[in-house]
Design a protein that fits this description.
Layout: H1 2-16, H2 18-58, H3 65-82, H4 86-118, H5 123-177
Amino acid sequence: MIEMVSQPITRLVYAGGPVLVVIAATAVLLFALALERLIYWRLRYRRQRRALIRRWQARSEHVSWSARTLRECWCGELIEALRVSLPWLKLLVALCPLLGLVGTVTGMIQVFDSLTVTGVAQARSLSDGVARATLPTLAGMAVAVVGILFTSRFEQVVRREDQRLHDRLTRATEADNA
């Protein structure tokens, strides 16, 4: 069973070259960070948000400048904890197409090497080089597109959560003043 799975993967890695392995490792890291942020947002962030709202409601005074400044600091800390991995996600997304280009260059070098060594008549060596040139580019772009989709969606979630947090704290303040 393992041999049936590993053989196509081995052929794919051979066809795409060593850069394809680096792209795969980058993709695993990218998606692991994305999954960690999703789990944090779904589980831990929501508990922290509820605790912050309770802490704000427990305060006796909400109107003064110092109270509003404290509220902004608390909100900023919580939202910053939510967006902490975004720069790393963006870096990995930007790295994927560049790695794909490195794969293209190394594949084209192989094509040119096969042309100089064997001549134009060896179609098999040319096709191997072209595959080695195109597979990493395709893989890098595919990982980057999925990473961009997640990153932009998560940035939208962070903005929405920031607005919701401020709205809930404002409603808690208004309820206390009424």
